[in-house]
Queue: 3 jobs
Job 1
Amino acid sequence: MDGEINSFIKVWLFTITSLCYCYSITGRIPPGKYRFLSLLPIFCLFLSLPFNLSSFHLGAPTAFYLVWLGNFKLILFSFGLPPLSSSTGAPIPFLHFILTASLPIKITQTRLKSPDKSALFAVKVVLLAVIIQIYDYRETLHPNVVLALYCCHLYLGVAIFLAMGASLARAFLGVELEPQFNKPYLASSLQDFWGRRWNLMVTSILRPTVYDPIRRISSPALGARWAHLPAIVAAFFVSGIMHELLYFYFTHVPPTWEVTSFFVLHGVCTAAEVVAKKTLTDNCRLPRAVSGPLTIGFVALTGRWLFFPQITRNGLDEKAIKEYSILVNFIKDKLLLSH
């Protein structure tokens, strides 16, 4: 565990040093292809850094922050686009640049102070701890119960890690941040689930990097009314590819494309849902009490079919569960040594 923590520290020292270089070129290289070319070594470095980590709970967030969010933000930065570039073209504050580039945060434009969510965070931690304890008996549980536990674990785990990163940034920057989740279990449709409730940091980075460009390209051929349909599918496709890459960091096996198929399926279904909303009247739409459970059920069942098999087949679930006990024992040993 000590060796893994040392590797984790080294990875993030390399990250911060690299981002200092990125910040230094703001006034030297104007936005465009030359700034993009100057950042190619950083893109490659961020792709390689997660290979230095073997633990799931240190490596997965690092890969997600750097390989996906970090690189995509730097691509936008290379062309002078937010969140690492200001609308005026002037450099944003140094600390804002470093934290925004390396953490899953987006500074909100509103001045209203968000409510204290420390109690909600504590509840999520407790619920995750309960789920981990229940895993000791999963051999005796019905597969559908295990599926429900995995879905809850995925949501709670991602929400907790993203909230930890946001708390760090909020403490340093003293600014309000946009929410990372918005009660996805209350989603009334796939469009609502993926676009307005689940992992909003991914949504906010896919929109300017994939959705908006594809929509602009499609507009001349399809018109403004339907150009967003291929843009939706393209955004889900890229999300699937990035998930395949994140899986590869920890399985080291060739992708089976199940996860990509999961996201492409949801992209096609979301696009079909958008078409249905445009063509059907309000009287033909399902009430929220019906559409909500159908949405969550569809996400869970397709997840069992296409999303989770790649995790369970390669033992990532077992690895993640074992790491919790290793972490607890590590903390206990450190506390005993401190006394």
Note: The chain has a mean pLDDT of 90.
Job 2
Amino acid sequence: IIFSVFQRLAAGEWFTARVSSCGLFHIAYPSAPENVKAELRTIYNQLCQDDMPMVRRSAASNLGKFAATVETANLKSSILSMFEELTQDDQDSVRLLAVEGCAALGKLLDPQDCIAHILPVIVNFSQDKSWRVRYMVANQLYELCEAVGPEPTRSDLLPAYVRLLRDNEAEVRIAAAGKVTKFCRILNPELAIQHILPCVKFSKLQAFLLQELSSDSSQHVRSALASVIMGMAPILGKDATIEQLLPIFLSLLKDEFPDVRLNIISKLDQVNQVIGIDLLSQSLLPAIVELAEDRHWRVRLAIIEYIPLLASQLGVGFFDDKLGSLCMQWLNDKVYSIRDAAANNVKRLAEEFGPEWAMQHIIPQVLEMATNPHYLYRMTIIQSVSLLAPVMGAELTCSKLLPVVVNASKDRVPNIKFNVAKVLQSLIPIVDQSVVDSTIKPCLAELSEDPDVDVRFFATEALKTTNQVVMAN
């Protein structure tokens, strides 16, 4: 019954039935009798030669799944012949799907058969007249390399990859650039420096032959490179990273396209592990400081998120000298997401360097900003106080932070006052009960009678918390 269904679908008058049948062969084949298996292979071969490109596309797309269920002997005699027909199809939409079959078949064949039948196809596809086929090769390159093994990769696929890095189409270069790090893992460092880096780094002798990826005319190519190039540092080692990669990092850090800068910033820790914080700070820190004031807020946000890690690696002295003022500056940023991240940043710095350092370098500046004329900035300070209090401890919270919150409860802006109520509620578990009774409860009681409904609501909720604490004690 099942076989008759396959026959009807595969021989259907409408191409849609034939398209659907291609996705069912790998399900039915393993449990079919031997005579039916032979017939199924014949039917699939006919579908690979169908007049309709849509059917051939479906056959190419499902060939890898079908091949995984076919016996080794029939794999070489039947499946490889179907694969070769699909790779020579006149429709590029069929050939690009056959690229995926290269990796799938390569994993099923012996190394010798893979080199004999799959490797030449990959090399030819890397020079295909259709950029979409070349794009698919670039996108699937690492999987293709795994299929053929390290030695053929170095001898045959390396030149093909270099061609893809130099391709005329930006989309192909984007896909190839995104595989730089993975591809270099397969090569030894000497080959990577000799063959891959010349495509990444500019050379006057090569200017008329190729555009270096780090200054490619397409911002998306540069962005793809920036997202992976930092991962090459552990592969190439310290000396090659300093000599070959650092100039590229600096170039990409100054790129006009924000996503390029963002991708470099987010991976700085990979370089730090190789060259050390001293050299990283000397070479890249000036560019990082410049990006801290970048006009694109997402770039500034990425810098803020990296600051605690950088602080822990630089140490207190270097941080105070170079980056301390930036952290305070971000609290007054025009973008809320930056101010929010900056508030969390000062908390993480206080955790890293300790309450004494925070008392000397953070608290005075935070308290000074509490009187900012703009209520949004005053609200950021209230948020910073709530985040710093658990780190600073009960004594410093009562003496330095709590008075700021109490003063803010008299602010003319309702948004400030109901945030004060929420902050006071968060301080109750931190301070002593005597402070709650003498300072926090009277302040909340006053806010609970405020003309604004939101202020009254949050103050009342906070008062409930104080009463619950009293009952618990």
Note: Confidence is low (pLDDT under 50) at residues 200-211.
Job 3
Amino acid sequence: MASMIFSDCSTTSRLLPLSRSRTQYGVVHVQRCVPRYLASPNLSFSSFGCAHTPTSRFIVTAAMAAETRGKVIDGKAVAKKIKEEIALEISRMKDAIGVVPGLAVILVGDRKDSATYVRNKKKNCETVGINSYEARFPENSSEQEVLKRIEVFNDDPSVHGILVQLPLPSHMNEENILNAVSIEKDVDGFHPLNIGRLAMRGREPLFVPCTPKGCIELLHRYGIDIKGKKAVVIGRSNIVGLPVSLLLQRGDATVTTVHSRTINPEEITRQADIIISAVGHPNMVRGSWIKPGAVVIDVGINPVDDANSPRGYQLVGDVCYEEACKVASAVTPVPGGVGPMTIAMLLSNTLISAKRAHKFQ
């Protein structure tokens, strides 16, 4: 795929509002259901589903997929709703047993983008009521210093989740540092044992990686069925491509992975009912790649030069939105799609960890 030519594509997103109205034959129908990932610390695949009880959660039914061609899935609105649910559950936990979930973030170096991500995570923790802890290290810190701090957080009962902000400086062994995080506090879901359990039938990971989990949660929140569908995942990274493929398989989809050595990727992708792209190439997936009525989840977030933008660039996805929205039944925007869901799932995983640690139902 590296040899492909990527042309410009307008990315003005047209968001699909999440309406609560009910009509007999309308595009959007709303159901109320309880999010099982908040009700129970068990992280089976079914925890992405919902039970029909009167709570604040909503789900847009599959009528959307048939009737709202050219619209996009509003990840920002869904993430906001999830954070409201998390805040309520944290309040219930605090009132019942006096425990508040805690998330520790380790930042090494002075990268502005990493500092921004950490600041955003801290702000979101405050929004839902999670205690946030932060350990900053200068660029020239030793790997051993970071490992010692991870050990402290591993042993701290007030910390239920540990996140190491990537990338790390080049002199540090990323694998050693990530593996040092206790599996019980691996809210990023990257520990080899968590990924291994995700891959094996009959086993359950303690945590599902946040971005893949967010992709699947979006599908479920919009009532988009996975079972029996043909799904194509573009990209095979350990962070998104691999785990999201495993999650789709757990949902009984027939999954094909498209990667840099795939022959005829356009032809293969065009067979998919569900496309999840996480390859990091701007506007690679064109309208001609998409089967009419398919659902497209765009994980890519790529800066491209834009002289008309005050920042000198704009963020675009892997998917050419203007073309995709004319063919697909639903598309996530960039920004405002998968990105907000990643943060929401990190908060969800931290809550799950605290509930598991204290056996709180």
Note: The radius of gyration is 20 Å.
